[in-house]
Amino acid sequence: MKVDQALTLMEEFGIKPDVVTFSTIMNAWSSAGLIYNCEEIFNDMVKASIEPDIHAYSILAKGYARSGQSQKAEALLTSMSKYGVQPNVVIFTTIISGWCAEGNMDRAIRLYEKMHIVGISPNLKTYETLIWGYGEAKLPWKAEELLNTMEERGVVPETSTVQLVADAWRSIGSFKEANRILSGSEEECELDKQFDSDKISVQSLERIYTKQKFGASPSNLLQIPDVVAPHSERTTNGNIRSQMVVQVSDNMRNITTSMFFIRTTNSYGVKAHIVSKQQIQNQVVRPFLDCCGVVSILC
């Protein structure tokens, strides 16, 4: 069934086509690579006094870009203003991809700069499209410059982004530079993993502390002493035990709860310990626990 017949049938059933209807048909023609048909449906929509939206313009721009008509795609940015339609990052990136596919990186970068002028921030897809374009144009140093630019602008590159830069270097036979890019990415990933691991350990310690704090009676809430000097000792099994030397103040007559910070190479543990009145009076602090060898923090 032809498109015009389908539209006629809709009208017979009292269904008035809208911008979504026309956009759906346009997308079908565009995906099939028939840009002329897509363009015809767009014109029919305008003739029917149905104003196109940003989605309809993006579909038409995609069709032009795929068919190597990037000049027509970019001209849509001007015609959009007639209907008060504001361009977005999607349609800009679509048109940029057309220029990159045609090997015209000057026009692609010019459009990228125009985005900043009109206040539209490029996203990850925009940068990856440009990096791919520089790779196709055998300009890997330009691709690497963009990698640095996007990081400066707060756009986090993904593994695919770094791979595109490495592929750009390979395109001119520079495998050493490609390996340099990939090695640098792997090192950053290891640092990120280490940071995440440390962050999880600290968060676990805070949760344990909060749980014990709110589970204790008001008289047993943890209070940090005046002087705490950390030491560390490595055990035979490779774990690190943290020791704390505590300066006991003169005014310590009440029995309170102590907290032990037990640090291993991977995690932290916390355990409450009751200090006897006799120990406090004699100002005796047992330096080690049988299980972990950690000095008590007297409160």
TrEMBL record:
Keywords: Repeat. Pfam families: PPR_2. InterPro entries: PPR_rpt, TPR-like_helical_dom_sf. It comes from the Eukaryota. PROSITE patterns: PPR. The keyword Nucleus does not apply. The keyword Chaperone does not apply. PPR repeats lie at residues 18-52, 53-87, 88-122, 123-157. This is Pentatricopeptide repeat-containing protein.
